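In response to the reviewer comment on reproducibility (Comment 2.3), we provide here a single inverse folding case reported in full, input and output, so that an independent group could reproduce the run without further information from us. The structure tokens appear first.
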């Protein structure tokens, strides 16, 4: 059985930048609080007429170009998003049409911040089994559309963007292992309450701002550190890998303090091993680790033969970790 490799990566970030200084004028916050508590300096905000699929298609085209493939070569499309253009058709179907791909399977997955790692892992199964040759996995989010811009405890955290990868069979390296998990009993810690069948949209839900993200940040923080460390262990131990064997960690970018605590638990130097871009983009849910992987490749931080750990945690709760030999 061949392994699955990442043949190309891509990204798209909206032009509009929202800085901490801008937020100081919107809510009762300071650049100092945001920087020291989260590591975020700025984030990108999509244009009003720019939906998740518009960002997804740009990231997808850039990944296809980097893989040297065209839309006609793709056999499967998976989009990880919690901010789809609409309930249905899925963002993956909208993307398939916009790309001009063949009538291949296309579906969304709703896994919040762990969506890219779930998407890569699902694609890996289809490729390893031989059912499909090339898969396109896109993580795209317009979190600004579900942010309460008067809630300082959440609005300073999130940003918009998209990252993508094209996967296919490889002779060397590739995805060596994955570990996924979920704990629905803690779903209330991070949620968007209204708009679904439990609480359909009404004037009351809009007035009560129930179409925006609600988060118990402090409790989540503690879970994040433990769960990301456990996920890293669950994927590295069966492969006999230790912290020193990992060349670079590409994590979900929710909070720089979570990542420093993760590095401590793993016994690695955060400055040396952990790839960070949270300062520029904030938390883009599933798109965070996708854009981080793309930028680490673009910046030459990832070289052929490197062992990469991807590690994410998010609403659901969900988590996932992957080991890729580049
Ligand atoms: O994407 C994956 C899932 N998400 C996460 O994993 C996020 C995990 N959580 C976090 O990153 C952090 O909990 C936050 C960054 C969200 C918050 O940091 P914290 O250190 O946990 O702060 P806190 O919620 O305990 O709040 C501390 C204080 C509070 O004031 P009092 O009650 O101590 O007077 C807040 O009201 O900071 C206050 N505060 C702010 N102050 C200035 C909360 N937000 C802000 C703000 N500016 N933007």
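Designed residues, in position order:
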């Amino acid at each position: 059985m061949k392994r699955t490799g990442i043949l190309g990566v891509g990204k798209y970030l909206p032009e509009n930048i929202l800085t901490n200084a801008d937020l100081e004028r919107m809510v009762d916050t300071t650049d100092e609080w945001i920087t020291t508590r989260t590591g975020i300096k700025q984030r990108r905000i999509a244009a009003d007429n720019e939906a998740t699929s518009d960002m997804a298609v740009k990231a997808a085209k850039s990944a296809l170009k980097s893989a040297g493939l065209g839309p006609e070569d793709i056999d499967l499309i998976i989009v990880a998003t919690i901010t789809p253009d609409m309930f249905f058709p899925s963002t993956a179907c909208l993307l398939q049409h916009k790309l001009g791909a063949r009538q291949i399977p296309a579906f969304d997955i709703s896994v919040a911040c762990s969506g890219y790692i779930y998407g890569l892992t699902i694609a890996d199964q289809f490729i390893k089994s031989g059912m499909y040759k090339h898969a396109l996995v896109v993580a795209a989010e317009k979190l600004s559309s579900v942010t309460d811009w008067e809630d300082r405890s959440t609005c300073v955290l999130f940003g918009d963007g998209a990252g993508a990868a094209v996967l296919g069979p490889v002779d060397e390296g590739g995805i060596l292992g994955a570990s996924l998990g979920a704990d629905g009993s803690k779903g209330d810690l991070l949620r968007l309450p209204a708009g679904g069948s439990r609480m359909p949209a009404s004037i009351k839900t809009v007035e009560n701002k129930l179409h925006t993200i609600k988060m118990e940040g402090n409790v989540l923080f503690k879970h994040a550190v433990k769960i990301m460390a456990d996920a890293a262990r669950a994927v590295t131990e069966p492969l006999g890998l230790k912290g020193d064997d990992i060349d670079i960690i590409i994590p979900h970018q929710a909070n720089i303090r979570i990542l420093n605590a993760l590095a401590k638990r793993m016994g690695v130097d955060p400055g040396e091993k952990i790839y960070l871009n949270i300062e520029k983009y904030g938390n883009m849910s599933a798109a965070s680790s996708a854009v981080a992987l793309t930028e680490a490749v673009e910046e030459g931080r990832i070289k052929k033969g490197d062992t990469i750990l991807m590690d994410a945690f998010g609403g659901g709760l969900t988590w996932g970790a992957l080991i890729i030999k580049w």
